[in-house]
Structure formats: C-alpha cells, structure tokens
Design a protein that fits this description.
single chain, alpha/beta, Dna Topoisomerase Vi A Subunit, Chain: A, domain 2, 2 domains, four-stranded antiparallel β-sheet, four-stranded parallel β-sheet, globular
Length: 174
C-alpha cells in the first residue's frame, strides 16, 4: 500500500465527463518535478482489452523520471510502469520505464547518456528482447533477462528482491 501511495496510484471511481472509459481502471500518474504530466490507465481485469489506455492525444513519456536524480552512476530501464515501480520502490533499484516495448524515443537516450552503466530489464518475450537489444544499439547497456515468460513483477513475486538483484551481477548492501 505504501508504494501505491508514494506513486499516487488510484482506481478511477468517479471519472470526469468524457473519461468514462477509464472507470474501474488503475490510474498511473507520470510525475515530474513540476507535477503530474500524464496519466495512463491499466485494466485490473486481465480479460478486459485494451490492457492499457492513455489520454486522447497524449504522447508517451518516460515514467518515473525522478529516479534519474536519485540514481548514482547507474540506473535501470524497463518496460511497463508497474515493473518500474517494483524495481524502484520494492527492490530499491533506481529505474525509469516506458509504457511499452515500442515506446522508446531517441531523446530518452540523451537523458541517460551520462550514466556509467544502464541495466535494461528485459521481459521474457519477443518484444522485451527486441526492446533490450534496440537499447543496446544506442547506449552501453547490460541486459538483465527475466527469463522466458517472466517480467520484473513476476520474478519479484516468485523469487523475491534478492533474485532480481543477483540477476544484475552486482553486490548490494541492504
């Protein structure tokens, strides 16, 4: 619950006029130093499509950008807001994310160019592998594969934080 509060997550109960399509969905705010700059909405029912929805006309943005300032000389990158929150708030790995494997924009590369090391947490599916290898062409990344059919969340739930940290090949002081 604390992570949800910190990330300002909420379920849409009483949508604004014109936003009725988001009712019952998880609202995920994109927060920067200046405040909320975008909202995405995730279905809480796996059978409901589309899984994710955004505001009409909004361009995709990088998620959890405040971690860029809290990171030291390395940072994580992953696909999906909830995986990003899991890495950042539950596992303690500074991380930014994009809302999908095909959402990377060229200017994001410049935002991360000063980091000595960038860990890309690749989902264990074809789009996740392509996302990671695409970033490796633009940045000096270390690809951390979550394994076939897995993502950060499923690996964390099944195996715990230490498992994800060990996949990075770095020692951590808890």
């Amino acid at each position: 619950m604390e992570v949800a509060r910190l990330a300002r997550l909420g379920v849409v109960a009483e949508p604004e006029v014109g936003h009725e399509a988001f009712i019952g969905r998880l609202a995920i705010p994109y927060i920067t130093k200046t405040g909320v700059v975008d909202l995405r909405f995730r279905s809480l029912n796996p059978a409901v499509e589309p899984k994710y929805m955004g505001m009409t006309g909004a361009e995709t943005k990088m998620y959890n950008v405040l971690d860029i300032e809290r990171a030291g000389d390395w940072i994580g990158v992953c696909e999906g807001e909830l995986d990003t929150l899991t890495l950042s708030k539950c596992i303690g790995i500074p991380c930014v994310g994009v809302p999908g494997a095909n959402s990377w924009k060229k200017h994001y590369t410049r935002l991360l160019a000063d980091f000595e090391r960038i860990f890309v947490f690749a989902d264990g599916d074809q789009p996740g592998k392509e996302f990671a290898t695409g970033l490796a062409r633009e940045l000096p990344v270390t690809i951390v594969s979550m394994g076939e059919g897995e993502d950060v969340n499923s690996a964390y739930v099944k195996h715990g934080a230490e498992y994800v940290r060990e996949k990075m090949g770095m020692g951590f002081d808890d």
